[in-house]
Amino acid sequence: MTVSLTRPPSASADPTEESGLIRLCELGVVPDALLRAGMRQLMRQRLKQEHAHDVERGMSALADLVKELRSSPIAIASQEANAQHYEVPSEFFLAHLGPAMKYSCCYYECEATTLEQAEQAMLARYAERAQLADGQRILDLGCGWGSLALWLAERYPGSQIVGLSNSHGQRRFIEATAAKRGLRNLRIVTGNVADFDFSDDVPAQFDRVLSIEMFEHMKNYGALMKKIAHWLNDRGMLFVHIFAHRHLAYHFQDRDGSDWMSRHFFTGGTMPSADLLLHFQDDLRIVERWWVDGRHYARTANDWLEALDASRETTLPILEANYGTQARLQFQRWRMFYMAVAELFGYAGGQQWGVGHYLFEKRGANAGDVA
């Protein structure tokens, strides 16, 4: 969730556009248990709409989506998203995310695993699966609040770490944190990946590019991966972490008053299927892939929600400074968002939606001769 989800839910949307029930939920008068039950019902409807139990129609829909994505720009609704969402201060997230400020799925190795431990466990998996080594030049594409970029800079002091963010606020936060930790091998640049390119000042030619929960905000994966391939050296590799459904792919669309998630958090976004990226291997080819059970994301979101509730006395004044009388509404929207994430990825025991990890190499590279 490193693009629009690092920004607040829309404060500008007309509340009359929401359904009556959603307005009651946003006012906080609907008990959490009932709210979660309603979310699970919407998920059952989504599976039906996307032909989850009709293989022929589902595969036809996926083929149509792939064709549509190939003819789309890299990203859509960027200006609209910027108009709807302005940045929440880092203090809001500092008050309830884990110590690493990892704003994406974490990995829980056992029932006793804490959020802090789960952050570190997932970061370690990235390093292992991306085949990282000290001395490499590494790009964190869509670096969010810097959880990965800062971790890489500390773990690999001989490496050059570059983070690309579309947020000046996140850039300032990461740079200030790096300065406090005495990290001199990390540089953050700002830009929209759809039209950004590196220059002589910050050259490309990376050994590794890692992207954590950014591809979900893109459309034309072929064009995006062609751009990334250009940024890699000949033996470079791309590691991608995306949330996904096991076989369905669909757009997040704000069609009516019930499309709350699309309106406030995922304008222009895509829910990938586990194999969606495999349809875009013109410039990069798959080396290995992994699947992370959705229950890991459910626990992550529930931990965020628990911490947000515990930090109410701290976080509400932060929101009041930005939203004034709308602060309580925004606080409840964040609560609803975390509940929605927990219910989505926990649905059916975590066996419908989950997280995919993918390692790609440039076409023509020797798979047995990795940097």
TrEMBL record:
Q: What name goes with this protein?
A: Cyclopropane-fatty-acyl-phospholipid synthase
Q: Which SUPFAM superfamilies match?
A: S-adenosyl-L-methionine-dependent methyltransferases (SSF53335)
Q: Which organism is it from?
A: Pandoraea pnomenusa
The cross-references to Pfam families, in alphabetical order and at most eight, read: CMAS
Q: Which GO terms describe its biological process?
A: methylation
User: What EC numbers are recorded for this enzyme?
Assistant: 2.1.1.79
Q: Which UniProt keywords apply?
A: Methyltransferase, Transferase
| Coiled-coil intervals, chain numbering | none
What the entry lists under CDD domains is as follows:
AdoMet_MTases
GO MF terms, alphabetically ordered: cyclopropane-fatty-acyl-phospholipid synthase activity
Q: Which residues cross the membrane?
A: none
The record lists the lineage as: Bacteria, Pseudomonadati, Pseudomonadota, Betaproteobacteria, Burkholderiales
